[in-house]
Structures are given as structure tokens and as C-alpha cells.
What we know:
Layout: H1 4-12, H2 18-22, H3 28-34, E1 44-56, E2 61-72, E3 76-82, E4 88-97, E5 113-116, E6 118-122, E7 128-137, E8 142-152, E9 160-167, E10 174-181, E11 203-210, E12 214-217, E13 221-224, E14 231-236, E15 249-252, E16 255-260, E17 268-273, H4 284-299, E18 307-313, E19 322-324, E20 327-331, H5 332-336, H6 341-351, E21 357-358, H7 364-381, H8 393-403, H9 413-435, H10 437-451, E22 455-456, H11 458-472, H12 481-489, E23 495-502, E24 507-514, E25 532-535, E26 537-539, E27 552-555, E28 559-562, E29 572-574, E30 584-586, H13 588-598, H14 608-623, H15 629-634, H16 645-662, H17 667-686, H18 696-711, H19 715-729, H20 745-751, H21 754-765, H22 773-785, H23 790-802, H24 810-819, H25 824-836, H26 838-845, H27 849-860, H28 866-878, H29 887-921
Parallel strand pairs: 1-11, 17-18, 18-20, 21-22, 23-30
Antiparallel strand pairs: 1-2, 2-8, 3-7, 4-5, 4-8, 6-7, 9-10, 10-15, 11-14, 12-15, 13-14, 16-17, 19-20, 23-24, 24-28, 25-27, 26-29
Helix pairs in contact: 4-6, 6-7, 7-9, 8-9, 9-10, 9-12, 10-11, 14-16, 16-18, 17-18, 17-29, 19-20, 21-22, 22-24, 23-25, 24-27, 25-27, 27-29, 28-29
Amino acid sequence: MFKLVLAFILALWSAFSAEGLEKRSIDLIAAHGLISDTKLPRAVTPNSYNIKLHPYAEHGNFSGEIRINATIQHRTKQISLHKHVDLTVTALKVAQLLPADYEPKKEQSENKVQILKSNWEQVPKQSIMTIDLSSEVNTGGVLEIFIQFKGPMFNNTSEGLFRSSYMDPDTKKNKWYVATFMRPNMARTVFPCFDEPSYKVPVTLTVVRPNFMKAVSNMPLESSSDPNNYWVTDKFQTTPPIATFSMAVVISELNYTNHNVSDSEDIKMKIWARPDFIGALVNITTKVSKSIKFLEDFWGSPYPLPELNIFALPNYQATRPSDSWGVLMFKESELSSKGSWHLTQELVYQWLGALATPFWWSDAHINNALVRYATAYTTLKIGENETFNNWPTTMLYSIYYEFSKRYPHGKNTAIKQDSSSAKTELVFRMLNYTLGESTFRHGMQRFMADRQYKTFFGDDIWMSLTDQARFDKTLPEPITINEIAGSWITKDRLPVVTVTRNYASNSAKIHQRVYLRERPHDVPDQEKFLWWIPVVLIRQDKMNFLNTTPLVWMKREREIEVLNLPNADNFVIVNPEEIGPFPVNYDVDNWNKLAKYLQTENRTKIPVYTRAKLLHDAWNLAYAGDLSFATALNMTLFLKNEREYLAWDPVFTLIDHIGKHIDSSAVHKKFQTYVRILLTPLYEELGNEPQKGESEGRAHLRSSSKVFLCQAGYLPCIEEAQKAFRKWSESTDPDEGNPVSNQYICPVFKWGTKEEWEFGLQRIINFPPGRKPSERTYLLKTLAGCPNDSWKIERLLNITVLEQNGNFTDNDIYLIFSMLTGGANGYTTLFNFLRKNWEPIKARFEEKPMLWNSIITSATTVFKTQEGLDLVSELYVERQTEFGNADFVIEKALKNIREETKWSNENLPIIEKWLDNYLKENKA
């Protein structure tokens, strides 16, 4: 991953990535938290809901009623269903519907209904209500549960039943709208129900609205009451079986335009927005029609509802679009953006999630992964790939990094859920390649045909693919997709495959083991990890990148041998196009053949994804200690003539990784010179300013190369930044705001003058309380994290830690310590500052263990060389009894630094020797 400073800068350079988009899909963290949730007893299950809702937008509350038709599965006298504690029950009646041939006694009503006495209570600390009946009801009995209720709307968050407002540009008056966002388990905040994904039942919804507003739900309108009344009652057609989280309603004064989907008269589409914003959505219908047409073919199933309503909601606060069935809600900026990724993803959910629904939250990650893959696949196939054609490389680099750690994810559930889902998405991609697109697509159609309007388990997907592969004979028996997928998705690890060729016999040994980058490689039980690995092999004498059928499957075998390879003059490539999510290592001779070939005009015969993979694999394997850095650096030589941004994409991450590791050594300046030689021709060719109509890939390449050139001391970049910075420093009131683009601040603070850095310091000290706090945070990050001069950092530490300047909070100090770990100059200066001022620092932080642990961690744990190890060891001896609750930090730091020192001792001489030759050849 990028250093904190560089990642921060790159984000502000608007470098795009599919990874950022992926996080907008189903809220995996919420779903993960529900896996262990207590399931409702299955003694009573719903058959249908009849719901009436009456929101009062101006007052921020609502009332309603629900009739639940339910069946008794096991003899019981208690009903349990979900109801949020904020939802107030105002009336309750339970009746048993009697058989048609039931003959009532004289004292009973002629109606085929028997009223059951009941009372209810809220389960403490749970969103569950229990209804106790006066007598038990036998298995097979049918109940009608009638509940009246009222509750508050959400005002500050777009969840449950919420309201929001916007300013009408004509009348200058505030206008309200009401909408729902039920995912994952917010339906219980709107009405009592069986709020679990496994309960899919038809719903009939009635909504009461003011006559000047319009109501929209999952299904078309069936009837409306007299529009001359202030309150109009809209009844909607009954839905197919639907999960509660897929339900939706929107009540608003927004305008709409009518369209047909995919030239079909059967599917009506409406695009809703403010009247003055609808013009920005003219291309939405084309995008939607193309995606739906493709998805209908992909799933082998038509769009499942008669209507599709798409909203651009003003002041929509949700962090992601709403993917309710037939009702999609977006932020205005998202819906008007030129990309189609978000739209396509929400459309994929219309089938997977709504039409076929995971039985329980434990299968949400597989649902999410398949949605992500189907979204990517669709977006690429329909040609809407301009913002998306770095998929899947960015995602691959992230999961390679995460799963190769000694302790993947740490304690971060968010990272774990996202990386695990990304890995499963890549397993679907691998299966699409190895089974063939036809088998994969027909397997998906088989699955959807079987599970539509129902629920599914993850194994249902794998079984459908296995059955289809058996039918198509694209998977050797007795292999099953369940086995293959299980070997990947159940492990928080990835394999590395090593190909060692025997050039005399034209054969090779192929070996698999756990892929580890962080040192030491002492992960327990790593010998037990084995995967089903498809060996797709490309040979130089018969290059065919279209044939992705595996030469052989490694059936959870440690090592296999393959025969009949090309002669010694030809290279081989295993796992081209990143078909499987694993890096591949080769013997040195094969690597050298690849490096030489890539430097020829024939290099484009190797697709750009594979060129990027070879480069990325080589660097990461070298970083892990599995390949010589001389070999890895040789793999960058072809970049001199490379202009495809996908091939360059891994370079920036890898420059950062290596730069961070060696920036405390004498080799670092030579490495920075290498970076300037590597990137300067590229940047000068791209030009400093965007060109009309250029691709986002080209813009991304320009911004990334510029950031790294600035970091490496590229003089034109520094001069440009200083020139722009002067607009701020010479302004009459610099504290009013920053008139300079953020991209210029870090280069100035890193390479600029004392006066420029001091100017930045004063802007933080004098920061007006009325400005956005995020602007101050950015400025403080760059002020601490960017400088190349130790005195700047020391001055900042003196002011904040020793002088205790009141303009800096404890959180500011914590942030400064964190930023100083981004480079050797930062953490070395912090270490020297701590050592020199130990007593006053310890006295100040004695009652603030968070800051004490933070300064010890930031000052001692990031060293990479023997010199750093000596410094930290000396401090530990000097102050051995004084670390207090940070004692474990220093002990862990010493262990890690020993490993990093070992790495430096082994690799820095090799890197330096290669750089010396490179700089000599380039006359640097």
C-alpha cells in the first residue's frame, strides 16, 4: 500500500480505481454483524403482508398498520417477530382463519374467523416483539396478525423510513420528500415483520400522501382515492415474493421522464429528479437499457418487474445507492456521472439479491462477490469501461498485499470483509476463464432458473456451475466447483506458484505454497495450506492468450511435473491475465527471457494485463525474498517504451514500497534518480495539462507520474508548486481559505524554503473556526508528513509537545506522530527528539497512555537498518524500566527491526549494484 502521505496526495490528485467503487456495494460490515444474530423461531412463518403507511413529512413521523397472514409450523401459543424499540404499537388483534368447511357453534360469529386473545411485549435489548396467545394453535393453523403502529422518521441518515428536503429554485421554499432504505435489517423500524432474508412473501402496500406529491413503490399503482382530498390513498399492485429489505417507497414532488427499457413495451422506466436537474440525466436511459439487455441474457431471465423507477435524490445522505427491487435511489452527483458502474451494479441486484435472495447473512459475501463480478463483466462487455478498465488489477494488488501479511486484516473487520469478498469475486473470474464463458453463463442461468423468487445458499451457486460443467464436459471428473471454490474462499491466504524448468528435458516442476511478504515467514501451519490451482500455460513458440483452458489442475497437490514444454530458447508464462489470484515465480533464466522479450517491439503480443502481472509479480516476489532484485529491476526496463497505463499501474505502488524501505540508506538518492529517469520521459510526453477528450487512464497516468516525480525531487514540479503556492502566501487574508490546489502543498513543504513551511505552520495556528476542519487536517498532515528537512519536523514537535501550544489538540499530536512514520527523515527525527527530551515528554504523557504509546510506536518501530537497530537497542537499554505500558511496543519493535535489517543487508547491495550500472548506462 502507498505510504500514508502518498496515498493522501494521490487521492487528491483524483487518481481513480475500481477499488474505490467496489466499496459501494452491499454493506458487508452490517451483514457480517448479523451472521450471529438470533434468528426468529420458525414456529410461525409469514405468507403475505398487507401494509398501510401514512408518513407526515413536515412533522417527521408516521403511522401505519399491517395485516400479516401467517402459518403455524409447530404447535405454539407465542408469535415472535421483529419490531424496533422506537416503533410504538397502538393496537393489536390476532385472528385464526378457520377452514372453509368449519361449522361455527351458535355462540360464534358466522365469519370464518376466530379472534384470539393476545398480549405482547418487547424483548429487552432486542428489536423483537413477542405476542402471547390465550391458547395454543395447532400446526397448519393460519393466522391474521393485525397491528397498528406509529414511529419517528430518520432525519439525519438515509435509512429505514427517512425524510429529507431541498430548496425549490423557483419558489425558494423548502420541499420535503420521504423514502425508504430497508437494507440490511431496517424494515423493522418501519413496520413489525419477519425481518430476515429467508422470509420472502408477497406484499400489498398502501400509502397515504398529500395530493401535491406522488408515491412510487416496487410495483405499479393499482388505484388512488379522490385527488381532491388533501390526503390521497394509493394502493399498489401486489409484489412477487420479496424480502423485507427489498421493499421501497418514495413520496416526493420530483418530476419524472417516461421511457421503455430495452425497446420493450412491457417494462416502463421513469427517471425522477428535481425539474432543474432532469436535463443532466439524459443519457441514463441508454445506459440502463444496455445493461438490462445484457443482464437478461446473462441470467437467462427477463427483468423481473413491470416497472423500474430511478431517483436522483437531492441531499441523499446514504453512503451507497439504494438497491431496492424496482426502485433505485442515487445521489444526484452519482447518477449524473459519466460512468455506468454504479448503475450496472444496482441493476445486477435486481436479479441477485432481490429475485434470488441469500437465505441468511452468512451468504451475503458470496452474493456480494458475484454481484461485483457480474457488474465488472457487464460493464466491460457493453463497452462502458473507461472508468473501469483497470479492473481487476487494482483489486488484485490490494488483496495480494493484505493476504501476504503475517496477520491479515489485523482486527479490522471492514478490511477482512472487503478483501474476502474481493477474493471470492476473483474466484468467479477464474472460473469464467477456466470453465469457459459459455459454461459459466449457462451455469448462472441454471442457478437463477432454480432459485428465482426463492432463497439460496452459497453452495447452490457452486452446484449449478458443477452441473453445467459436467454437462459441457469442461471440468474433469470427479472435480467439483464446490471443492475448487472452497479451497480459495475458506482461507485468509493466497498461494504463490513456482515454475522451475528443466531445459534439458523440456519439462518443469510446478510447486505451490503460502505467499508471504512480511518477515519473518513464520506463519503457523503454513505447510497445511493447499489450493486447487488451474495451470494455464502460454509458451513463446505458440502464443495463444485466448485459450484459457487449464493444461492441468493442481488438485491440492504440493508439486506436479508438466512435460512437453518448448525448448530452452523460449519462455513460458503461467497464469496469464491474472486468471487465478496468485503470483507466479520462475527460474532466473525464464525471467531473463521474459525481460529481454518485453524490451523488443514484439512485447505487445503479450497483452497489457499480462505485462502488468509479470512486472507486479517480479517486484513483489523480490520484496518477499523469493527473487533477486536485479531480476525484478530488469523487468522494468521495457517501461522505457511502454505507454499503456495498465502496465504502469503497479510501478507506482512498487516504487513506494521499495522507496519506503530504503529511504534511510545511502541507496535512496540513487533510487530517486532512477525514478526520475524512469518517469521524466513519460511525464514530458503526456504533458502537464490534460488534453481534450483524453481517457481517464491517461489522466491517471499523468497525475501518478507527477506525484512520484515531485516526491523524487523533479525540479520543474517543485518550481510549478512554488509558483502556485505564492498565490496563497501573497494573498491579503490567507486565513480565509486556500486558493491553491492541494496537489501543490506537499512538494512545497518537502522541498521548499523555510518561509514557505513557516507560512503553512501559521495557517494551522490561525485557522478560523468557521472553516471546514478537514482542510486543517489536510494541512497538518502535509506539514508533518512531507518535509525533507529535519529542522522543520523538530520545530513542529517543539511547538506541539514541549511548548504545548494551545492551538494543537491531543488528536493533532497523535496525527503528527502517525504522519512521521511515512519516511526515514520523519521517524528518525522523532526518535532523536524523544531521546533528547525523554523526561519532559514522559511527564507530559504520563496520564495520556494513547499519546505515550503512539510516540513510542512511531519513533521506534519503523527503522529498517542496522544503524536503526543500534539506536533503538541503546534507547531500550538506557530506559529499560521507564517504558511503562509501552514496554511491549519496544520489544516488538526490536524483533521487527532485526527482520528488516536482515532484509536490508541481503538486498540493498544488490539494488545498489543494479542502480550503479543503470545510472552509468544512462549517464546520470
